[in-house]
Design brief:
It is found in: Cytoplasm. The protein is of the alpha/beta class. It is built from 7 helices and 6 strands, in the order αβββαβααβααβα. It has 2 domains: 15-100, name from scop, CATH 3.40.1690; 117-195, Arc Repressor Mutant, subunit A, CATH 1.10.10.10.
């Protein structure tokens, strides 16, 4: 099955974004790989994504480094070609291709992220943010019934192992600023522009 799609533009990621991505990937590697038996590297307009999983998707990471790939191998996960990936990874690749081409707004692949009960609650709420909309950290905290937990929400948001699929990029600052994003602010802006939540930058 081919997941190749032509896109109108791609994103060039600067060195600051790479540093943030590496830090985020390192922080999440152990939890995501504990449950992964297969891993596949997929090209996208915002750089390669590393998908892991078996019966369900366990992680979607931005721009995996050589250290990340070494962690995949040492975990016992089997790195496979896209054509040889198990059904859940092939379906995730297909849905991501549709998302980037603008024809998909929701994902329905089975997910199995590893996290604390609080993190899982936050990630569930992230999936309820509609395509083309954003929420603040305070909004998520209020939805949890704990308005004072914005900081904890931010930490859980940053620990999300399923980038794009669980749309942590849709969470912004209370003042409308994009704030931090493990994949880098440029990627966050790209995704929000793709979804129509931000006007495309003129330059």
């Amino acid at each position: 099955m081919s997941t190749s799609v032509r896109f109108p533009r791609t994103l060039t990621i600067g060195p600051d974004d790479d540093a943030a991505t590496t830090a985020r990937a390192a922080a999440r590697a152990s939890s995501g790989l504990r449950h992964a038996t297969n891993a596949v590297l997929v090209p996208t307009p915002i750089g390669p994504l590393l998908l892991t999983g078996a019966e369900a998707l366990t992680a979607v990471w931005f721009s995996p480094s050589s250290e990340d790939m070494a962690a995949v191998r040492s975990s016992g996960a089997l790195a496979v070609d896209p054509e040889d990936a198990p059904p859940v990874l092939r379906e995730a690749m297909r849905q991501l291709a549709e998302y980037f081409s603008g024809t998909r707004r929701e994902f329905d692949v089975p997910l199995a992220p590893a996290g604390t009960p609080f993190q899982l609650r936050v990630w569930d709420l992230l999936r309820e943010i509609p395509y083309g909309e954003t929420r603040s950290y305070g909004d998520i905290a209020a939805a949890l019934g704990d308005p004072g937990s914005s900081r904890a929400v931010g930490l859980a948001n940053g620990s999300n192992p399923l980038s794009i699929i669980v749309p942590c990029h849709r969470v912004i600052g209370a003042d409308g600023s994009l704030t931090g994003y493990g994949g880098g602010i440029d990627r966050k802006r790209f995704l929000l522009e793709l979804e129509g939540a931000l006007e495309p930058a003129l330059f």
